[in-house]
Amino acid sequence: MGKIYGIDLGTTNSCISVLQEGRPHIIPVDGNGIVPSVVSLDGTNLLVGRKAWNRAAAFPEQTIRSVKRLMGTMEKLTLGGKEYEPEDISAMILRYLCDEAHKIEGREIENVVITVPAYFSDAQRRATMEAGKRAGLAVERIINEPTAAALFYDHVFASYGEPDLKNSSAKGSRPAPSQRTGEEYALVYDLGGGTFDVSVLRMGEIIEVLASTGDTHLGGDDFDKRIVTRILRQIKEKDGLDLEDHVPAVARLNAVAEKAKISLSEKASVRIEETHIPAPKGNCTVSMELSREEFESMTEDFVDRTVASVEKAMEEAQLSAEKIGKVLLVGGMTRMPVIAARLEKIFGSARMPVVDPDLSVANGAAIQGGIISGENCEQILVDVTPHTLSLESISFDFERLECAPIIPRNTQIPVTRARTFGTVSYHQKAAELKVYQGESHFPEDNTLIGETYLELAPAEAHCPIVVEYSYDLNGIVHMVAEQKGYSRKTEVRIDSRNPQLFSSQGLKEIEGDTENEDEEEIEVEVEEGANAINFVTQHARNMLSKMPAGEKKDVLAETLARYERALLDDGDDGNNVDEIEDELLSLMEEEIEVADEDADDNADEE
Amino acid sequence: MIESAYELLRVSREAGPEEVRQAYVRLVRRYPPEHFPEKFASIRRAYQQLTLDDDFIQEVFSSARGGYSTPLELAGFLWGDRKELRPERESPLTDLIPLLKGEEIKLALSQLLEDAASQKIEWKTS
Fold first, then answer.
1. Which of A155, A426, A503, B83 is the most buried (most CB within 10 A)?
2. Which of A380, A415, A466 minimises the CB distance to B28?
3. What burial letters (b/e) apply to A15-49, b meaning 16+ CB within 10 Å?
4. A-B interface: how many C-beta pairs under 8 angstroms?
5. How high is the ipTM of this complex?
């Protein structure tokens, strides 16, 4: 597998990053790498990024911004008289990023990891996958933005030590290894242009996500809108003009508001002065003063909403505020001073290390790409399911249909879970199995991601049917349903990212289709084996390159060579490979321990 | 053979929570989910059992209510090794669990699973 690029496909800005010699680097598309997620039509010319953004205020009707807000909906967008789906527009942004990065890197970009807000619904994730596909990319993984930010932060911390917002004197000091081996809980607060996310993680030698929650329709855009509303009101009072529905005026004011908001993160007050606001009859002007205090009270309810999500995430992770050791602020909106202040009130003693709020998500995605390709063997990530997977069943009182959860959200993946259901009637002919994704008890509020039938052998009512779901790292659900005590069984694979695939394949009866079943299983097995082998040899090679010459190095090199040979003439003696693999892993483990101890000693000496 | 949670995590039966955590982290580093999904799942399971994780208890409950009737079968299911096991109808677990409270449930359950996994006890149904 070649390089896997990491893409932060944001509401206002997007960004692409890649690992170079183990470190993520932002590719400087559009100058600094921060590419506005804007698409604009100039005549017949399609513009994306900075150039499109420059036209947004002047030609709002030929420009599309914040398309991320529409992902997963059926809404259509018009550009130059043509209709587009949100996926098409996102695909244009992705294509632009990859083409520009190609020019800079000189390498074709095929495989990518794209980030999404942790709380993105299944439909929104699927739409993101689809956008990648339409851009001609192989989307290796969709990962959560706060998780990506945490991965990047962990990488920076491991390499350079912890820059601390509160104690700036400690900036840049390399951590003592003993400090690294400890574990602590971290909270990622990610307020972007259009979405808000919060995740709680346990970070140490491995990174475990414990809980994620958020709000997919809350972000910087909403803060801007409050300022726009304020200005519109002033114009109405002063000139008696209602410009609320006048697109060019609102587009102009959006830009003005965003600028004012950004200044207010630095200054206590800002003067809003605009002389060229387009109105139906000529231009009109606005001149007003906006203080930070005023702005904060105007948007207090938004901040309250984020705080409520923070509390929910803490509850789901079963942690109290004092357990949190670190708070990571991600997303441009976290530059607003009131946010750090509010979080400080909740997490008093927690440190707030400096992470780049704009670039850390893309960098984290590149690191995840490295984990998948085997290039990065240092970081281990354990992620969770973003949504509950349930089965439609009849409630105890037979009154209504409800969703019985099988894999609850925030379960660490990959995972296999089963639950037993009972048939309703004597000699029931079949059971309908409908797989839902979502948090509601009611099927109508959740998303149906797949369905199948299990034909039943004649039996008493309440005959147990065991339904087992497996959820893998790629979000693919494998369902097995079995009538207990009878050999009736049905099995189906659902790609939760791609339901169309599911409906065309439909159900597969084991009894009638044994051959095919075997094939599929073998395919999966080989895949896992291949990945693991890639990981083991790659890790061993990395380790060898860092080891000083000596007996140990020779032993490890010899074992690795033996392992690789065993892999090549695989097949005759499967056990042999396993044995050597175990031997190799043990050697590597010892080496890691020795290295850790050495590092500890060095730290003590200092 | 079904490995017990202790064997899987390679810790002694006297291991305290910290030791269990360390063993878990070490094994996850060795078998990351990205490259060893199945192995990771069983390590995670064992860890949840030894730490008596709520999620684990919850699941044992919902499975005890239904098809997994003997501790042996339950253990088999938990380690993902259920194919070799035969289902039995009566469930002593279902009778036992409602009589216990709070921590007792957790302890009894973990003991039961341990014994079943190490095949120390043979569970007979009436």
1. A155
2. A380
3. bbbbbeeeebbbbebbeebbbbbbbbbeeeeebbb
4. 82
5. 0.75
